[in-house]
Amino acid sequence: MAVDLVTVWFALVVLCWVLFCVLEGFDFGVGVLAPVLGRDDSERGAVVRTVGPFWDGNEVWLVAAIGVTFAAFPDWYAAMLSGLYLPFALFLLLLAGRGVALEFRAKGDGLRWRRRCDAALALCSAGVVALLGAVLAVLAVGLPLGPDGEVASRPGALAGLGRSTAPLLSPEAGAGAVLALLVAVLLGATFLGLRTTGPVRERARRVAVRVPLGAAAVALLVAAAGWTAAGTASAAAAALVLLAVLAHHRREAAAFGLACGLTALAVVLLFTANGDVVLPSTLDPAASLTRSSAAATDSALRLVSAFAVVVLPGVVAYQALSYWVFRRRVGSERTA
Questions:
Q1: How far apart are CA 146 and CA 96, in angstroms?
Q2: Is 329 in a helix, a strand, or coil?
Q3: Cα dist. 156→140, 153, 159, 160, 161 in Å?
Q4: Cβ pair 59, 95 in contact under 8 A
Q5: How far apart are CA 44 and CA 196, in angstroms?
Q6: Which of 177, 89, 198, 72 is nearest to 133 (CA)?
Q7: What is the pTM of this model?
């Protein structure tokens, strides 16, 4: 039986986004929580050290997601990046700022320098998460695609600026940003509960108990607004309540695993909500991009498949090894 390469590569695109959102999700959550859970410089340092060996490797999956989309679905890539180029540019700038804050935190002398780096880390992490949630929500709802596959713009000198920012002002984008922030904080709190000892671990547990209840309320509000199925939102809310119970009873591994599973499921549902359509058109449904219409030629897909068979297993193996090597908890207790 012939392999449907279009479906295989669409699944790989979704997998790359799932891995990025889950792995970088707890990185971002840790960045947001570092100034909150760390009451002094030593505790904040312990929080940052939990993601020190992982964060730059986790960002590989963003490069993979964009690269795979470019190689396998060039029309989807072109419409997505041209229609949202300003948010994506800001997204990359915030990622760079976050990387600088993480790398240079220990390079300067003095408490003031580290506090500034911690503040920059928290702000950039929150900004990245909010933008990511808004962009994913917009991509699920659609862009004003014309019959030629181009994103329509308004006349005037600032047409491109308006085209790339207007979708982010929608209620769906706002809900996506709020949900993404809650999910990132939840991932970060459950990860810190699993990876630290001492007072940071206890504070992270309390956050992991409270945040799921807020996320469940937002999920139900999204369903009430008609943006998702009521059954899906109710199941998500029930799972979030279960997560809070697990965190309360210090079942840290189970709570973190459930948080990762819910994040992965949410990303999959976002990318498959429209069936075969990968990017809906808000102007004319007939102009929407489907998997087959946006895909590269069969010969191109066969060529990139040969590279993927060699490269992707190596990346997965390397990351699995790094998580195994740095699996021990980080202490946050004060020492003499």
A1: 34
A2: coil
A3: 28, 9, 5, 9, 10
A4: yes
A5: 12
A6: 177
A7: 0.87
